[in-house]
């Protein structure tokens, strides 16, 4: 009996004394969904957080106030700043639901690796949020722009990037852990999606912006930011961004336009595609072979080809695959010539497939990448033509 | 603490002798008294009770005394048959010796269950069981005839364990009717019933039923021994017996299955289990009981095995829902916000905006309110039933949410486990989830999901320590018996369930020979057959 008493005393003490230390009632917290880091004026950084006003996000309880509150604080370490923002915000901020991190262009050019350590180390912050560059803007301004559906920019961007990547492929699908992997892996440099404010940032930062059919300001996906180490090197176009995904074998679905005859185009929906990369070093020169295999269906054509013959499929397929070949090659050449930074991870491929030779060039791989011999080989097969075989165009024209 | 200690000690000290059923009771001999004395003595025993009737009568040329309790016997039967036959004159017959009495009884009441008794205490007992006693002058033995009448409820559908498909009869309060319900289902000479009289003041009939040659003799012996050891003064319900014979009382889980359904008891008897029937209650106990018994019901076997399996899984799921939903709510909302998808978290925050209480208070408030409503619903007079349900629905539902005392989602968090709790086929088992729920909520308020996990681990450890008549409570899952899994989480087709539960160690482990699945007759021209 005495034993029981002691046991229950220990158990009670364990529960009552050890418990509750990280307890937070829902009424005491504000959920942070987005964070922006900019270059500070006096100190190193300006941290901007977007705290959600949950009542406004719920259609039943919303009463037309701003959907979120954005507050900035300046300091030298993000770790401190995440708590210092309470100088302006009332509730305890929880960062576990952070969806988007936006880095100002100015800061990105100077290097970002210092504060990323905090984001990776912190127990609350996940490592799978979207990491974006605000092109020609401050990150804090991007966070302030409102939107009709998800209402807050960070939630909107999260959904938007996801949809874009699945349907067309403009977003590289880079999360924080991908950036860190790219840094730590030999033979790869990180990329990030870049966004831009289309319109007036001032006007975008009000709830009136949500009420307009054409908002005063809108955050749009602009380009692909490419890095050398932790410094921003430059931007590629959205098409390049899609081609990047293609090389990474990350395309889910996409659409391409090919010229089927002079000044006439056809749209192809690519719904299944695989990419394989082979790489090796020959006499100190890298040889990379990219093999793309894609299946597509005709989604619209200006030409009045009649798709009741196998030959027509083959011909059109060849046109399209040449188109893809050119696009992808162009993108790679552009990166090779203008930036000389291996964002595609060809170094990784060579590391796996030709380790002995890679070891020798490991430290100056980017130079090898810049003058690598790259060959793209695409196979595209047209499987279907939508719900019509013969086009009505022939009868009209 | 010390009180409990001394109580426990007291219980240990007492060594109950094994009681022999209907022990021969000694008492004053009948021979030593004449009728007048006996009359006085019976009167003295019963005092001034109104229903004692003592009539003098003369039969076979002899003075006799007819004693009975008017409330216990069928007076119509008494008048019509017994008195007519006994007072009818028969020439040349003298009732002088015991043999004369015997032959008289053989002639008149052969087959009617007469008894000749010789001691005074037996007379009293017989009277209490609803017998009539006829005392003859100068005779050593008295004639006792059973004429008990019980105003029985007719057999109706069980009120607790209803089925859609299956027999609609349920046990009643009369033990003999209950035995007959079982006999009618199992027409087998091996079905045995043994009688015990338990309760020093109530003298309640308790029968144990089992299949001779199937049931494990050791378990039957253990049941006999435990029933024999009971020394309480009163037994009113099988719940009393259940508590007195359980292997352990400090547990919220029932260690004996109780049911109102004769078909359920019958099928359990054939599995090799033992039924305990108590006079005066429609609830029959089945021992040994294991955890999985509380998730299977007779109807599982009456419908398609796929549906039976599906419903069984639903029952396991509901038990878990009933047990942990409120504590998960508390744990996640106060410790683990990151576990919820963002839109859901934001939705809950929006709803809880303005709720003055912490989540745990909110949950406890609503759970207690619900328990009060539930108890009120069971106890209230039928006439006020509607009032309670209207008020209850208002209190627990919209009104509380609108008044800002609780959040809307809270209504769901209370309602889902409440409904899930009613899925449990055995009420006493559902009660375990009801109790443990509160423990989980409180620990979860302090330690979050970590605490929920700790309590669940403790519950599993506790469950595996339990025994029901020596059978591990978690068998056949722990200890794991692969060949017994056909009737645990899934219900396999009946033709494939040939084995009796191995954990019972039955004398006859196979129920029927191997037959295989039923199949259509061979087609015309099929050479294979």
Automatic annotation (TrEMBL), chain A:
It comes from the Bacteria. It comes from Cytobacillus firmus DS1. GO terms for cellular component: membrane. Residues 1-18 form the signal peptide. Pfam families: Spore_GerAC, Spore_GerAC_N. It is a lipid-anchor. This is Ger(X)C family germination protein. Keywords: Germination, Lipoprotein, Membrane, Palmitate, Signal.
From TrEMBL, chain B:
It is a multi-pass membrane protein. Residues 506-529 are annotated as: Disordered. InterPro entries: Spore_Ger, UPF0353/GerABKA_families. The keyword Iron-sulfur does not apply. GO terms for biological process: spore germination. The chain crosses the membrane at residues 313-335, 405-423, 435-461. It is found in: Cell membrane; Membrane. Its main location: membrane. Keywords: Membrane, Transmembrane, Transmembrane helix. The keyword Calcium does not apply. GO terms for cellular component: plasma membrane. Belongs to the GerABKA family. This is Spore germination protein.
